[in-house]
Amino acid sequence: MLTATYILVSLSVEQASIRMSLLAFQKYMQMQLRQQSRLSLAQLQYTGDWLNRLYQGGYWRKVEMYLIPAIRQATPHADGLLNELNGLNHAALESINVVQQRAGAALDSSEQQAEQLCAAIDTFCAALLQRLEKEERELFALARKVIVGEAWFAIAYQFLAHDARAHEARRGKAQVLPFVLPASGTPADAAETPGIAGTAAADALPAVPQPLRAQA
């Protein structure tokens, strides 16, 4: 069905945008952390803020808001796969908790902290990237099997209404772009603010502290 194909292609585009954000954030933070001899409380808070921002952005995806509810309505046999997806979300959330706990405890700075922070970021990104892959490989295939007829048209209408609301909300605002590496020689405060493209969560969240800087 053409409507189903349109919907799944639209979701794949959304997945690609989020994947780009995660990979760019991971690469940027790894580059920054390699330069650190010590970490400050502000640096830990900055990392925790962005991990939380990327995590919360996932709940505004069309997959979460429209496709998964349609699958739940269409079949009672999707709980196993949906529980696996939720488990990957939980793994990502645990990584955020590790960073926030360290910031809250205000632990003494050390080289080991930088290594642990880098490991937490890697775990976070790996979990969400695995979820995206599982959604595209298994969830989308399941949707094609169990969602039929008018249900696809209902989802398409929801997509159009969602896009219209998002467009209206962004009017008069600066567009939030995916996380991109600052250009060489660009001051930190002039660099693009990282985020998730086209999500209401990204538009609603306040600005976060400046990128990590090496501390003497």
- For the CA atoms, what is the radius of gyration? 19 Å
Instruction: Report the helical percentage.
Output: 55-70%
Structural class: mainly alpha
Biggest sheet descriptor: none
Q: What would the principal axes of the Cα set say about the shape?
A: elongated
Uncertain parts:
180-216
Query: First CA to last CA: what distance?
Result: 60 Å
Number of strands: 0
User: Residue-averaged pLDDT, rounded?
Assistant: 78
Q: How large a portion of the residues is in β-strands, by DSSP E? A: under 5%
How many helices? The count is: 7
Topology pattern, helix = H, strand = E: HHHHHHH
Secondary structure topology:
Elements: H1 2-33, H2 41-57, H3 62-74, H4 79-105, H5 111-146, H6 150-170, H7 200-204
Helix pairs in contact: 1-5, 1-6, 2-4, 2-5, 3-5, 3-6, 4-5
In short:
The chain is 70% helix and 0% strand. It has 216 residues and is an all-alpha fold. Helix 1 packs antiparallel against helix 5 and helix 2 runs antiparallel to helix 4.
Descriptors:
single chain; disordered C terminus; mainly alpha; 216 residues; 70% helix
Protein architecture, described:
The chain is mostly helical and about 220 residues long. The chain has seven helices and no strands. The protein has helices at about 1-35, 40-55, 60-75, 80-105, 110-145, 150-170, 200-205. Helix 1 (about 1-35) crosses helix 6, helix 2 packs antiparallel against helix 4 (about 80-105) and helix 2 runs parallel beside helix 5. It starts with a helix and ends in a 12-residue tail after the last helix.
